[in-house]
Design goal:
about 100 residues, alpha+beta
């Protein structure tokens, strides 16, 4: 029998009694020459680009370029953790409010 638990709070999720939410996150690197506007005409010489990349690989001049360009993660969440995730998916800290006295 398969048992599920929330990847955030570690609580066991009963598959027969409650809804389990799956969050799938994919992160991929965007190399500067890959990002291109779609409204611009594509007059790029792709053969020249491939040749330049191969030359950089041979000379070891690929510093700054990611070696792995895609990461995928999958998480199971319970109802309350899912609601918290929706409110703050990037887990950013809330705004700091400063209270001033009335003097």
């Amino acid at each position: 029998m398969i048992h599920y638990s929330c990847d955030r709070c570690r609580r066991t999720i009963s598959d027969s009694e409650e809804v389990r939410y799956r969050v799938e996150i994919e992160v991929s690197a965007v190399v500067p020459h890959q990002e291109r506007r779609t409204d611009e005409p594509d007059d790029t010489d792709h053969l020249t680009e491939v040749h330049e990349i191969l030359e950089r690989l041979e000379t070891g001049d690929m510093i700054g370029y990611p070696t792995q360009d895609r990461t995928r993660r999958r998480y199971d969440l319970c109802e309350s953790c899912y609601q918290r995730y929706l409110k703050n998916p990037l887990a950013r800290e809330g705004h700091l409010t400063i209270g001033f006295s009335s003097n």
